[in-house]
Amino acid sequence: HELVAFLMQNGTVTLSELKLHFKQPERLVKLLAERGVLEVEKVRVFRTIESSMTAPATPNQLNPDQVAALTQIVAALDGGEFHSFLLNGVTGSGKTEVYMHAIVKVLEMGRQALVLVPEIALTPQLMSTFRGRFGDQVAILHSALSPGERYDQWCQVAAGTRSIVVGARSAIFCPLNRLGLVVVDEEHEPSFKQDERPFYNARDLALVRGRQAGATVVLGSATPSLESHFNVVNGKFQELLLPRRATPRPLPDVVIVDLKEAGFLDEDRILSRPLAKAIEERIALGEQVILFINRKGFAAFLLCSACGAVPRCPQCDISLTLYKRSGLARCHYCQFATPAPSSCPTCGSEDLQEIGAGTERVTEMLATHFPSARIARLDSTTSSGKRLTDTLSSFRNRTLDILVGTQIVAKGHDFPGVTLVGVLLADLGLSFPDFRASERTFQLLTQVAGRAGRGNIPGQVFVQTYLPNHYALVHAQRHDFSSFAKEELTHRRFRRYPPYGCLALFRFNGPELERVQEAAQLAANLIVPHTRDGKLEILGPGLSPLSFLRGRFRLQLMLRAPSRPALQRLLRVLGPQLGKRLPRSTALRWEIDVDPSNLM
Description:
Blueprint: H1 2-10, H2 15-19, H3 25-34, H4 64-79, E1 83-89, H5 95-108, E2 112-116, H6 123-134, E3 138-141, H7 147-158, E4 164-167, E5 179-185, E6 193-194, E7 200-201, H8 202-213, E8 216-221, H9 226-233, E9 238-242, E10 253-258, H10 273-284, E11 288-292, E12 301-304, E13 321-323, E14 328-330, E15 337-339, E16 352-355, H11 359-369, E17 375-378, H12 386-396, E18 402-405, E19 418-423, H13 437-449, E20 460-465, H14 471-477, H15 481-495, E21 502-510, H16 513-527, E22 537-549, E23 552-561, H17 564-581, E24 589-594
Parallel strand pairs: 1-8, 1-9, 2-4, 2-5, 3-4, 5-8, 10-20, 11-18, 11-19, 17-18, 19-20
Antiparallel strand pairs: 6-7, 12-16, 13-14, 14-15, 21-23, 21-24, 22-23
């Protein structure tokens, strides 16, 4: 009688709610259901994904540049056929607002939209932005969700109850059967390429899905990839330009600091005096600062002053990175960790020098020289789950003064309080053994510089470097993508690198070096007969730049072809031959990566 009275008062309730008021209600519910007094119904309840950020629901008024871009996108949507755009807009030009206005048109047509973003760190911000505008029509898909959360989001998309999907690269496979618009934000980002099996580039697949669905595809970036820029030049993409910021503020002033001449604030030579002075001034005014260094940890490695030995990972040919707060020396590739040595494991000397700086060391140095500043760091070791959103929210709410971070802080974030950005060592990216090193350095500097001056106060950027005259830095200082692209494409054309050629990277690895060498040479011998006409070129085989990882030796060879059809013809023949001659096993693994983004 008490349970029935409770139901009469409260209506439909869950079994969990009954358990709060009755002991073991399952027996009573079953008994009453058998007597027809109540009904038991199973209802599917989806998990909700909350965002700690809030965003305005009302759309911003578009400026003339945004209106012009949106008009062409809407015309393509009305046409109902595949069309591809490159939305080339400077940082802060309002590309996201253009996306959302286009999505409104898509929804009015009864179709669906897919928005791909490169970094999980951007998803909370975009989730709040899109849900603020579109409410429960938005589904979120990325790897930081639990399996159950991803499953629920996927099911709602498949059922057609969510018409907008925002997600990382794997969201390209989501079941949207009325797809009308695909947006790839920050299309230049290498994280859109999955460099393990199955290999795919979500940006390229967006174009494939768009063509199959008769949808409009918009690739957006402030620093487009040279491949996309080349497609504009060749007429494959239509370019839409947003040359000015959406706010009245101009692009930030960029100052290149020559570290060969500038003095340093600290004995570790991390912070130049010009940048230190600028930080002090901005903090005194109550403004915010972002410091970017693309290296995590406290020190890059430990060096014995007596014998020159460097503690290395036993499973990788990699020096161990020191994390001072946790007292660990860690490998960033296999995640091996050991207590940081107090003496040299080779000679026993206790004179170990901490070489190089990472985010942890920079944060410690700043706390010493700016004791009143509220400082946080953001890198892959501190950005898991709720910690990421909490740090970003705290910085956006201005309860932090300085944010030190790796690439996570460089892309897509909108922090109106940031007026100063410092790049502590711009040369790190230029030293990579990769033909895209200059392009990625230019992109990264432009993106991180774009975090400054997005509010009401003009921004300033300090770029510390030992190579002040490098063309990637000079063009980034001028915010001049066109001139950089022209100069970089000249180098690419001379060397026949993409977009003037197509690459396939053959990777081989195994625990025995001799076996791996034999396999790589066998592949080379199979390729050589196809290169005699001079159109195809083979580079290698040789040791990979990271030649020993996770207890396995790594070799690679690269195949360069003048066109994609030529490359595909060879791979269709070569793939089955290699599969037959080199069966994959624990002793030997190999793979073919077409259009590789990672050459390490």
